[in-house]
Amino acid sequence: MKSKMLADNKVGQEVPPFAVKDQNGREVHLEQFKGEWLLLVFHRHLA
Length: 47
Description:
The protein has one helix at residues 3-7; strands at residues 19-21, 27-29. By secondary structure, it is α+β, with helices and mostly antiparallel strands.
């Protein structure tokens, strides 16, 4: 995922399509939630 692309968005703006892996390693696409409310929470893991 290109974080710069998402960082440029403002509140209320549409987000470009993207996919991320969930906690079980399955790929989840933003388009799967079209028409629904969605809360995204991003965590940075320090290695």
